[in-house]
């Protein structure tokens, strides 16, 4: 609620019910989850993902665009939609941690569920068991330093995400630059940040560094995109991940 007092705008508490209503409708929830890999998808693709007619989806997409959760891009006669910003993806991941798992009713669904947990994209960075293993490897190799606040473990009031952060070390900078990972310090986006992985309940690396590492692994052919958010490790990737980061298949397979 906004009130005026002495020509000064007063803004009330966050209206989470509005966002909850936008995300909570089943068809819109499926659209948002389909867009969680950070790519722009056509309306026809999203209609198939949501299981609704194109005319029905158009209404849902309009509401998501009006709510600033999804943006639209036009290319020729087609319109493509994507999540507007990382904070939307963060909210979806947080909801996924709270939500009950959907029942698996077929072998195909079971295979997909396992692949999602093994390795997937979370907006523009790597998640799942492979994402968690990557962050662990970066810390174990001292490419990233864990910077914890004093008494963070004994202070539950700090809350998740405030208890620690990750700092890129000089060794890490040199190693990642040698690998070809972009380390643009001019970006306004935080270089390192972490998400709590909804399937593993452990942290994976986000921020500009997390995004740039995923981009480079795809460029190298170590990873390839699969169905929806799934990513797959290639034979070259298995060797590269083990040689470069010490990540063996048993940690993520």
TrEMBL record:
Short name of any one Pfam family annotated for the protein: HTH_20
GO molecular function terms noted in the UniProt entry: cadmium ion sensor activity; DNA binding; DNA-binding transcription factor activity; lead ion binding
Q: Please list the residue ranges annotated as the HTH arsR-type domain.
A: 8-103
> What Gene3D superfamilies would the database entry show?
Winged helix-like DNA-binding domain superfamily/Winged helix DNA-binding domain
Which BP terms in the Gene Ontology apply to this protein? response to cadmium ion; response to lead ion
InterPro entries, per the entry: ArsR-like_HTH (IPR011991), HTH_ArsR_DNA-bd_dom (IPR001845), HTH_Metal-responsive_Reg (IPR052543), WH-like_DNA-bd_sf (IPR036388), WH_DNA-bd_sf (IPR036390)
Would you tell me the protein name for this molecule? Helix-turn-helix domain protein
């Amino acid at each position: 609620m906004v009130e005026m007092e002495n020509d000064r705008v007063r803004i009330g508490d966050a209206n989470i019910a509005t966002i909850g209503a936008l995300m909570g409708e089943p068809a819109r929830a499926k659209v948002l989850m389909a867009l969680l890999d950070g790519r722009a998808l056509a309306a026809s693709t999203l209609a198939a993902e949501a299981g609704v007619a194109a005319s029905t989806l158009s209404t849902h997409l309009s509401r998501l665009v009006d709510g600033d959760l999804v943006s639209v891009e036009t290319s020729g006669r087609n319109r493509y939609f994507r999540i507007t910003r990382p904070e939307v993806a963060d909210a979806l991941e947080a909801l996924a941690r709270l939500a009950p798992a959907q029942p698996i009713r077929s072998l195909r669904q079971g295979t997909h569920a396992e692949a999602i947990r093994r390795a997937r994209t979370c907006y523009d960075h790597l998640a799942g068991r492979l994402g968690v293993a990557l962050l662990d490897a970066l810390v174990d190799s001292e490419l990233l330093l864990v910077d914890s606040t004093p008494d963070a473990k004994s202070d539950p009031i700090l809350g998740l995400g405030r208890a620690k952060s990750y700092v890129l070390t000089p060794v890490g900078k040199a190693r990642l630059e040698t690998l070809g990972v972009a380390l643009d310090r001019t970006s306004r986006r935080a270089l390192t940040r972490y998400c709590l992985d909804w399937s593993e309940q452990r942290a994976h690396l986000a921020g500009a560094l997390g995004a740039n590492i995923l981009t480079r692994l795809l460029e190298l052919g170590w990873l390839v995109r699969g169905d929806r958010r799934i990513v797959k490790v290639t034979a070259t990737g298995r060797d590269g991940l083990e040689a470069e980061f010490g990540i063996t298949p048993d940690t993520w397979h």
